[in-house]
Amino acid sequence: MRHDPTFWLLARASGITAYVMLTLSVLAGLVLKSRPFSGLKPAAVTDLHRVLAMLGLGALAGHAVALVLDSTVHVSVAGLFVPGLVSYRPVWTSLGILAAELMVLVYVSFSLRKRIGTRNWRRLHWVTYGIFGAATVHGIGAGTDTSRPWVFGIYAGAVAAVAAATAWRALVPPVPARARRPIQRRGEQTA
Amino acid sequence: MSTYRIEIDRSLCSGFGSCVDAAPAHFTLDGSGAAHALVAETDDERALLAAASCPMGAIAVFEAAPSSQVA
């Protein structure tokens, strides 16, 4: 009997979607920090950054549920949370679990930032680079669609975009040079 | 040298605290977690850094006394 491929398809699609959302959220966060586009309102980019992260976590939840319900690879509920319990490509799946758990941690830390201190909250945000790296390796290593050119293109594009945005952040000083963005003068502020 | 006037839109402030890191002598987070300016005016350029670092764009810095050569 052929098994029903629905959940297997959903697992793959939601995994790729989660990765794309995570990448876009990281890019929004980096843009927020380094401001390469002066026309963007920081508050709007902050909202976008959080919404994309939330959508990514939603897709991640779908990825997890679909993997348990699907019978192509055998993933138990415990296997979703404990790295090493999945026999299918254990190293790559474990990296995915780790990335997902850290992503939840970073997301939740936003609500806890008054309790843990804003400085610690921002330090924790550095973990995101590790999350992005682990998610990329997980997708390439555990994903069964990596050999498709458009999927590989997503990984390559995501890594290139995040690397470029990180380089921008590291190399371009955060202060608007006066020539680049003049200081607002009295009466000029609109919001 | 310019003198800068600091204004914080506290309805926008989400208490990220990046301004406090950028200019600890000029900003603090109050009990409710919102940013508060410790000085109204300064000639310290770190005020500009703080405004640039705010993820909500809640800090505005105005040039209160532009410098001009008089002699």
What does it look like?
Chain A is mainly α and 191 residues long. Chain A is built from eight helices and no strands. Chain B has helices at residues 18-22, 46-53; strands at residues 3-8, 27-29, 35-37, 41-42, 59-65. The longest helix of chain B has 8 residues, at 46-53. Chain B starts with a strand and ends in a 6-residue tail after the last strand. The mean pLDDT of chain B is 87. The interface between A and B is medium-sized, with 22 and 29 residues.
Query: What is the average per-residue confidence, as pLDDT of chain B, rounded to a whole number?
Result: 87
Largest sheet of chain A: none
Percent of residues in β-strands of chain A: under 5%
Report the structural category of chain B.
alpha+beta
Approximately how much helix is present in the residues of chain A?
Answer: over 70%
Largest interface: A-B, 22 and 29 residues
Number of helices of chain B: 2
Beta strand count of chain B: 5
The helix tally of chain A amounts to: 8
What spatial form of chain B do the alpha-carbon principal axes imply? elongated
Quaternary structure type: heterodimer
Distance between the ends of chain B = 15 Å
Q: Which blocks of ≥5 consecutive residues of chain A have pLDDT under 50?
A: 177-182
Quick rundown:
Chain A contains eight helices and no strands. In chain A, helix 1 packs antiparallel against helix 2. By secondary structure, chain B is α+β, with helices and mostly antiparallel strands.
Overview features:
A: 191 residues; mainly alpha; 8 helices; B: alpha+beta; 3-stranded antiparallel beta sheet; 5 strands; elongated
